Amino acid sequence: MDAILTGIVQAVFHFLDLEVILLVVAGVLLGLTIGVIPGLGGLATLALLLPFAYGMEPVPALALILGAYSALYFGGSITAILLNTPGTGEQVVTTFDGYKMTQQGKGARALGASATASALGGLIGVFVMMAAIPFVRLFMYYIRPPEMFALGLLGVATIGVLSAGSVTKGLLSGLFGLMLSFVGYDPITGTPRFTFGNLDLFDGLGITSMTLGLFAIAEMFHLFAKGRSIAQEGDFSLSAQAGSSVWDGVKDCFRHFRTIVEGGVIGAGVGMIPGLGGTVAMFFSYARAKQRSPNPQEFGRGAVAGVIAPEAANNAKEGGSLVPTIAFGVPGSSGMAIFIGIFLILGFEPGPNLINEHLDIVFFMALAIAGSSLMASLIGLLIAPYIARISYVRPQVIVPTLITISFMGGFLDSRVFMAVTITLVAGLFGFWFSLLNYSNAGIILGFLMGPLVERYLFLSLQAYGAQFFLRPISLAILMAGLAVIFVPYFGRRAGGKVLPPKGVDQ
Amino acid sequence: MKLRTLADQLTSAFFILVSVGYILTSKDYAPGARLIPTIVAVSTIIVATIQLIGPRVRVLQALAAEKEAAEDEAETFASSGYLKRGAVVVGWALLLHFLIYTLGFVVAVPFFMATFLSLVDRRSWILNLVMTVALGCLSYLLIVGLLQLPWNEGVIWSMID
After folding, report:
1. Residue A448 · residue A340 · CB < 8 Å
2. Domain ranges for chain B
3. Looking at chain A, which residue has its C-alpha nearest residue B24?
4. Cβ neighbours for A453, distance < 8 A, ≥ 6 positions apart
5. Which chain B residues are within 8 Å of A451, Cβ to Cβ?
6. In angstroms, what separates the C-alpha of B85 from chain A's closest C-alpha?
7. Which spans in A164-295 are helix H?
8. What does the pLDDT profile of chain A (506 residues) look like in tens digits?
9. How far is A249 from chain B (nearest CA, A)?
10. Helix axes A107-139, A246-255, angle to 10 degrees
11. Which of A490, A499, A484 lies closest to A151 in space, CA to CA?
12. Cα→Cα distances A251→A305, A313, A374, A395, Å
């Protein structure tokens, strides 16, 4: 208990540092700006932020990245409400009622409700996360290398299968990521593998280059190939008709406070389940609010509760998804898969060690998410109409800019030209695979988990012999992994629908 | 959708070929170094084979079948102009890669931006100029200022020297 209190106090001191607060604000502005660019997406944004982690201390780097990541979703809500264009893809549920409100001249009220619900939802998610940590710490006593090995495989299988077009494509994505991770020095024997004598490959393919390629470059190819700016026809005038101000939206949230609490709990709960993602949380929360409403027929026609419920769930999900990410190294969402890469760049290994040795960092992340959510809502409301204009920028301008920045980011990784080549090749693979509905998130997760899975397998074999996977918890986790793979199979064989809605995990 | 099916099959074949090459290459490594790569490559061959033959084998169809959501997205693949524009942007990215290799970032980036924007997006020359100068300055600050590398690091400059 002392360790937890000490961790919380240290985290508060980290957060109150002026440099950290300024970086959070900078991150929030960055996230809001990028969040309103339709099609760029949360994963691409996180990938673009990855190079910033180099050369920075862990706390300032996390402040900047978490600030941007938390603000990204409200940025996406702005275009979802004003332009019927979900900026991050996940906010499709917000458009149901948000855009209808804009059409009715209540755009400002919807934005006010969205901002307040996002901020309160983010706080609920962080509260749930902080409440879960002590229990997770108790559970970790039973987590040994065999369990970590099984959790690594479970994470790769889950993210891959749930975010790809088919079970086999999900598995192939994860396996391909694992294969790519073995390029470079073997951590156990020191043998250089699959380098073909190229010295630039001895340190592996590079997290930043791979992530930028698979997400940012691939997304830019996709945006250009679509050939149009999604927001071309939109009208984001914020009408000032009676009862439709930002403040009315804020008051709406307190009238529907129970909806926010339920949405927050649903979001945090769904966030803890790896692979389900924000869209599922938002759909569940929306469905619950509609079910509880005395006027369910108003949903889809501009009901303010139809904006509040999904927005609260979406931000709360981030706190929840941090729990499996930091505790077991199993990401709660595709975004958290990239966060594992950020942890590794900053010198932290996600898993029990992170919680046991860097509890202050864990709680700091919770505070940063909560603070960023509040700041994003406040700043976002002030500058929303101006920021939304960015969504009109043509892909012909955005695409070359971000491809160039991604190449520079990749180069920062190792300062050799090979990094630029890896970024480009990863982008080509990412574009091709996303066209065929493979999972880029599965590939990057396999890539990140490869060295850990290999090390834990080695340790398990050394300590427990070949029967290591028969340990009860390890066996249960492996069974859960098999269930992830085969439940959809049997569901399909039976003709049932076991699929998440379109857009899950993007 | 024939093109899509062919692309799927080629991709599955690609996974099988890469995995076979992977196993053959790892045969030269010490047992500890080849254990996991071999397991992963064999698993990849099995899954890729299911992906390749799955649509034709009844018992495997459910594993290889696309989700409904994915089927919707697959329509993008066949839409007119998508692949053509995709090929164009890939070509531009390859050009940028080549320019960086030959000229270095500091020269290649503004040159690429100016060329791309003047050929592809001719609507506002002021915006194009601003973007070119901004990206040029960013590349200079990053390469020369932050990384302290020479501005003329491309192969063409070393040939001239």
Report:
1. yes
2. 2-78, 82-160
3. A194
4. A149, A152, A153, A156, A178, B36
5. none
6. 5
7. 167-181, 207-211, 218-226, 246-255, 257-272, 277-292
8. 677 788 888 888 888 888 888 988 888 888 887 776 655 656 677 777 777 777 788 888 888 888 888 887 777 788 778 766 665 556 667 878 887 887 777 788 888 888 889 889 888 988 888 888 777 767 766 778 888 888 888 877 776 776 677 888 888 999 999 999 999 988 778 889 999 888 889 888 988 888 888 888 888 898 888 776 544 444 445 544 555 677 888 888 889 999 999 999 888 887 776 655 566 678 778 888 888 888 888 888 888 999 999 999 888 887 888 888 887 777 766 677 777 888 888 888 777 777 778 888 888 888 888 888 888 888 877 776 666 566 566 788 888 988 998 898 888 767 889 999 999 999 999 999 988 888 887 888 788 888 888 888 888 888 888 888 888 888 888 888 888 777 766 666 665 444 443 333 33
9. 33
10. 50
11. A484
12. 12, 19, 16, 38
Q: What Cα–Cα distance (Å) separates residue A436 from each residue in A169, A176, A356, B76, B77?
A: 9, 15, 41, 10, 8
- Chain A residue closest to B22 (CA)? A194
Residue A47's identity, in one-letter code, is A
Query: pTM for the whole thing?
Result: 0.75
Beta bridge partners of A192: A185
The two beta strands, A184-185 and A192-193, are antiparallel
In A296-416, which residue ranges form alpha helices assigned H by DSSP? Answer: 305-328, 334-345, 352-357, 359-387, 395-414
Select from A193, A431, A438 the Cβ nearest to the Cβ of B26: A193
The closest CB to that of A397, out of B50, B63, B127, belongs to B127
CA A66-A317-B72 angle, to 5 degrees, is 105
Question: How crowded is the C-beta side of A98, counted as CA atoms within 13 Å?
Answer: 32
